[in-house]
Amino acid sequence: xxxxxxxxxxxxxxxxxxxxxxxxxxxxxxxxxxxxxxxxxxxxxxxxxxxxxxxxxxxxxxxxxxxxxxxxxxxxxxxxxxxxxxxxxxxxxxxxxxxxxxxxxxxxxxxxxxxxxxxxxxxxxxxxxxxxxxxxxxxxxxxxxxxxxxxxxxxxxxxxxxxxxxxxxxxxxx
Length: 174
Known about the structure:
Layout: H1 3-19, H2 26-33, H3 37-43, H4 47-67, H5 78-91, H6 98-105, H7 110-131, H8 137-154, H9 156-171
């Protein structure tokens, strides 16, 4: 993404995260992105394109927050990954996963479903790679999903539960 795309994507992400996918008008999205309507449509020619651009931006920010620079950051253990996910939830996503919200707003949209699947797959693969354990990616995905989806109800208790589950999976892989 170039600087203008990042600016627009960041604004779109903030608008959708704060107000959902149905509520903000295109004018609201333009205002949040801080560009003219013409510029917004140049980089995202439809509302669907705006949603995809926002989610791609969110994906990249999430990966950077949870896993750091994949080229240069040292591996960390699974507890640290879960701590970083919890930190993301505290700061960025106290209402749950924006990808799940997008799919819920358009359940028949194959592009959104594919983006959700790609995001979750990449997160679970990176979590396994960073932890340098033999944990099955599906197991870690369930643990991370449990943490993110229960965060709005349980907060810090969700983190404690996720850590206990990760310990059980690390000790006794199935």
